[in-house]
């Protein structure tokens, strides 16, 4: 699989089947569409192309929108690449691109750049300036430019009943299990381990403080979570606190991971944290000893849940 952009000259000349969307999260609904895409490509001897956008259109069109995304663009590419695609075409979404008419988009991007012969698109998809064109308009353009349009029916979409917005809402409320069910994989963040204040180490719970790589990445609701990561090709488990460290009168949000039975130095390393479940809300304790007692209970609870998960 190869990632290409509109500024590159390595755009394939082989006829293609294309689907279009932001694909934030690449959730089970997206995966169903991409499965259909790769199937059609094999049937018709076409190459499969996902046309996606970055930045997210709402980031450009709604200047005050503080939208948080399920994936960074690097994560989106990584997840898509595992689904058997030939190409991912990343279209930079700018105000100039947003002003492009529907016909210009079809001619300049789908036809001239991607040599499209088959488009798979949702029944409610809109495109072009002011999102004025719909699937019926796309069929007209298909007749003009020589490509077929395949509709993803309302029933197909509704059968999955998934949306990126629903997943964001689940994560914002701390509902990790619902997010996992909709995504089809454990939600994760990527970041760099940085030095903190060392409170955890003094309490027998040393933590890795995580600085997330991209500001637009969605961080789940404050609280204590069960997590996993990979270290030297081995899964390690632990728990993570997201929040303000109220027992220590913290005034800055931190993301701190404690791994069970793990003593390696992670400072400066890139790390991926997957969320498995949520244990509790963050709260202020009357003393450090009370916090330590709760952390011990959290560890016991987490290890029991991990053991059940791995049965």
Question: What's the layout of helices and strands?
Answer:
Elements: E1 2-5, E2 16-20, H1 28-44, E3 47-54, H2 57-61, H3 73-81, E4 87-92, H4 95-98, H5 102-111, E5 116-122, H6 135-145, E6 148-152, H7 154-160, H8 164-172, H9 176-183, E7 188-194, H10 199-202, E8 208-212, E9 223-231, E10 234-243, E11 254-259, E12 270-280, H11 288-309
Parallel strand pairs: 1-4, 2-3, 2-5, 3-4, 5-6
Antiparallel strand pairs: 7-8, 7-12, 8-11, 9-10, 9-12, 10-11
Helix pairs in contact: 8-9
In short:
The chain is an alpha/beta fold and 311 residues long. The chain has eleven helices and twelve strands. It starts with a strand and ends with a helix.
Descriptive report:
InterPro entries: FAD_synthase, Riboflavin_kinase, Riboflavin_kinase_bac, Riboflavin_kinase_bac/euk, Riboflavin_kinase_dom_sf, Rossmann-like_a/b/a_fold. This is Riboflavin biosynthesis protein. It catalyses: FMN + ATP + H(+) = FAD + diphosphate; riboflavin + ATP = FMN + ADP + H(+). It comes from Gelidibacter salicanalis. Its EC number is 2.7.1.26, 2.7.7.2. The chain has 311 residues and is of the alpha/beta class. It has two domains: 2-162, 3-Layer(aba) Sandwich (Rossmann fold), CATH 3.40.50; 188-309, Riboflavin kinase-like (Elongation Factor Tu (Ef-tu), domain 3, Beta Barrel). Helices cover 34% and strands 27% of the residues. The chain has eleven helices and twelve strands. The chain has helices spanning 28-44, 57-61, 73-81, 95-98, 102-111, 135-145, 154-160, 164-172, 176-183, 199-202, 288-309, and strands at residues 2-5, 16-20, 47-54, 87-92, 116-122, 148-152, 188-194, 208-212, 223-231, 234-243, 254-259, 270-280. It has a six-stranded parallel sheet, sandwiched between helices. A six-stranded antiparallel barrel has the order 7-8-11-10-9-12. A hairpin with a 2-residue loop joins strand 9 and strand 10. The longest helix is centred in the last third of the chain and has 22 residues, at 288-309. 30% of the residues are buried.
């Amino acid at each position: 699989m190869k990632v290409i952009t509109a500024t590159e000259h390595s755009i394939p000349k082989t006829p293609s089947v294309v689907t279009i969307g932001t694909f934030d999260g690449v959730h089970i609904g997206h995966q169903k569409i991409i499965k259909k895409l790769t199937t059609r490509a094999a049937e018709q001897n076409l190459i499969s192309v996902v046309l996606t956008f970055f930045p997210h259109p709402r980031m450009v069109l709604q200047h005050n929108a503080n939208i948080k995304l399920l994936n960074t663009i690097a994560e989106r590419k990584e997840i898509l690449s595992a689904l058997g695609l030939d190409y991912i075409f990343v279209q930079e979404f700018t105000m100039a691109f947003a002003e492009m008419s529907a016909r210009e988009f079809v001619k300049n991007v789908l036809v001239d750049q991607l040599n499209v012969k088959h488009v798979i698109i949702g029944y409610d998809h809109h495109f072009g300036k002011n999102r004025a064109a719909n699937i019926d308009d796309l069929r007209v353009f298909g007749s003009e430019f020589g490509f077929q349009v395949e509709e993803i029916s309302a029933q197909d979409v509704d059968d999955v009943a998934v949306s990126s917005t629903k997943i964001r809402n689940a994560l914002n409320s701390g509902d990790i299990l619902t997010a996992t069910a909709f995504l089809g994989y454990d939600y994760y963040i990527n970041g760099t381990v940085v030095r903190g204040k060392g409170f955890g180490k003094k309490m027998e719970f040393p933590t890795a403080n995580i600085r997330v790589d991209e500001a637009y990445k969605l961080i789940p609701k404050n609280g204590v979570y069960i997590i996993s990561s990979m270290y030297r090709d081995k899964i390690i488990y632990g728990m993570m606190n997201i929040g303000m460290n109220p027992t220590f009168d913290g005034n800055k949000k931190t993301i701190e991971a404690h791994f069970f039975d793990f003593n390696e130095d992670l400072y400066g390393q890139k790390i991926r944290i997957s969320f498995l479940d949520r244990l509790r809300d963050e709260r202020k304790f009357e003393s450090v000893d009370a916090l330590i007692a709760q952390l011990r209970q959290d560890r016991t609870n987490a290890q029991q849940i991990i053991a059940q998960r791995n049965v």
